[in-house]
Amino acid sequence: MILVTGATGRVGYHLMELLADAGAEATAMVRVEARGADLPGTAGHLVASLEDPPSASVLREFDRVFLLSPAEQEQAALETVFIDALVAAGHRPHVVKMAADGFADPGVEVRFVLSHRDVALHLSATGLPVTYLAPSLYMETLLEAAGTIRDEGVIRAPAGRGRVGFVAARDVAAVAARVLTSPGPRIARAGPAAASPLPTWPSAA
Questions:
Q1: What one-character DSSP code corresponds to residue 53?
Q2: Residue 15's closest CA among 84, 74, 96, 70?
Q3: How many angstroms separate the CA atoms of 127 and 131, rounded?
Q4: C-alpha to C-alpha distance for 190 and 186, rounded to whole angstroms
Q5: CB–CB of 104/134 below 8 Å?
Q6: Neighbouring C-beta atoms of residue 151, cutoff 10 Å
Q7: Using the 8-state DSSP alphabet, how is residue 34 labeled?
Q8: Model's pTM, two decimal places?
């Protein structure tokens, strides 16, 4: 069974749709009971949060966990609390962690990206099987800047003079759905026996 955190967000909502289409058994974790009723395809949900996780007996029902939380100052701390609850449950689920492009770069200095790196280091130390999805900027954010793009003919992004590979949130959700419904980890696995503290691979575009 699959547990989806962040199910009401930009990627999580699409993920719930795709898991329903695939006939996968998925449960959304929501903070507010009413939000669960509006999610696609799910016959059930549970009310909990990263800082107040479900009980160990409930967590043991899930062998796949999609881990996504809002970009906020306490992100690393909240996800760490939830990861520790998974470890304490004692059944080693496969975690699919939403990260930020560049989080595996040892020279990263962006606070938001550093939060994901801290979580990844903690996950690596637990030895849980894990897949990281690290997309670039979402295409949907272009709508928020539509006026500027129209008036100035410029797309502004924190990329210096580099290229930016915008990606649709639904496409990211499709990758997550594929991993969550596959027999085993498909992209990367971090564990205590790894040669480096974090896995390395090309960033997702």
A1: P
A2: 96
A3: 12
A4: 12
A5: yes
A6: 8
A7: H
A8: 0.83
Nearest to 40 by CA among 81, 4, 80: 4
pLDDT digits (tens, 9 = 90+) for 4-18: 999 999 999 999 999
Tokens of 82: 């939830």
Q: Does residue 191 carry a pLDDT above 50? A: no
Give the Cα separation of 163 and 29 in Å (integer): 36
Instruction: Write the single-letter amino acid at 144.
Output: E
| Nearest alpha carbon to residue 50 among 25, 19, 74 | 74
Neighbours of 142 (CB within 10 A): 14
What does the radius of gyration of the chain's CA atoms come to, in whole angstroms? 17
Tens-digit pLDDT profile for residues 59-92: 999 999 999 998 778 899 999 999 999 999 999 9
Confidence of residue 107 (pLDDT cuts 50, 70, 90): confident
